[in-house]
Amino acid sequence: MVKTKNPVVDSYYEQLIALKKNYSPLKTAVVHPVDANSLIGAVESAKAGLIIPVLVGPEEKIRAVADKEKIDISAYKIISTKHSHAAADKAVEMVHEGRVEAIMKGKIHTHEFMAPIVDKAKGLRTGRRMSHSLVVDIPNYHKPLFITDAALNIRPNLAQKKDIVQNAIDLFQALGLGTPKVAIVSAVETVDENIPSTLDATALCKMAERGQIVGGILDGPLALDNAISKESAAAKNIISQVAGDADILVMPDLEAGNILIKQLTYLSGIEAPGIVLGASVPIILTSRSSGDLSRQASCALALLYARHPRVNTL
Predict the structure, then answer these.
(1) 2 pLDDT exceeds 90?
(2) Do the domain assignments include residue 1?
(3) Phi/psi at 184 (nearest 5 deg)?
(4) Gap between the Cα atoms of 238 and 240, Å rounded
(5) In 3D, which of 43, 46, 31 has the Cα closest to residue 103?
(6) Is the torsion defined by CA of 70, 73, 74, 75 positive or negative?
(7) Quick one: 170 and 202 in the same domain?
(8) At how many degrees (to 10) do helices 110-118 and 84-96 cross?
(9) Rounded to whole angstroms, how far apart are CA atoms 300 and 247?
């Protein structure tokens, strides 16, 4: 897969969707698809050969949306539940039973959607911390940019950040992009004991040197401008393989990541496809306002990740 964008031929997201190649689509539980955005996104992703949707939620509401929007759902199985809570529970149950290979969020709040997934007794936990990674195609940046974590981990500690970094690296490699340059982002580029994220950044880089994080080139702390601007890095005399050329931005906490993504989507008009990693199956997690292209690209990420042979086992 090419690392650079090709705006003349297709958007990066269309290139991403095209990478499905000869992979078989993922059988996917679509949780509570009771609005036009989520139902159309699931159906169009199925038409693109990315998923085989199983629609999980109140059947009458799903059919009402389909009728109103003139969406043909006759080819897709519906598992009827009473409400959104039950739909999320049912999707997790279907994973355990081997009936689906992924879960996709519909019109349901993220906390409600994720609750049964992260449940310690009956959820989809693995040895890894779950985290969310987005892939954004920013007009004035020279390549796609991965951003983590803007959706799940509110104030991750060092051990959790280690898994967040590794998850993002694994996704990058599953797309055939090679070795990513990983910027551990903070407010400044120097270590400051009064800014805990700079201490975490330093520790994460040392962990990568010791083989506790594998597959990427890490540097940090880096302020956001240093991470994405060679001019800014040069002005501050930062000598780094990562500075100004980051592939992955690891944000210090959810607040910083969420604000950055919403700035990009609402001020720059970009799509923000993403998935949750670290569960036993890929979790396709998009905003309830996400459009069709973003949902299809998210399904493509899940498909490529699920079908890619796992290499890293840390």
Answers:
(1) no
(2) no
(3) -90, 105
(4) 6
(5) 31
(6) positive
(7) yes
(8) 30
(9) 19
Is beta strand 51-57 parallel, antiparallel or unpaired with respect to 77-80? parallel
Tokens, residue 232: 């800014």
Closest CA relative to residue 92, chosen from 110, 66, 128, 119: 119
Does some domain include residue 2? no
Domain that holds residue 154: 129-273
Inside any domain, residue 248: yes
d(CA 14, CA 196): 39
> In this structure, what token pair is assigned to residue 18?
């095209």
H-only helix segments in 97-211: 110-118, 158-174, 196-209
CA distance 184 to 201: 6
pLDDT in tens, 207-246: 999 999 999 999 999 999 999 999 999 999 999 999 999 9
pLDDT, tens digit, for every residue of 75-121? Answer: 999 999 999 999 999 999 999 999 999 999 999 999 999 999 999 99
Q: Which two tokens stand for residue 143?
A: 């390549």
pLDDT at res. 302 = 96
Burial 12-22 (b: 16+ CB within 10 A, else e): bbebbbeebee
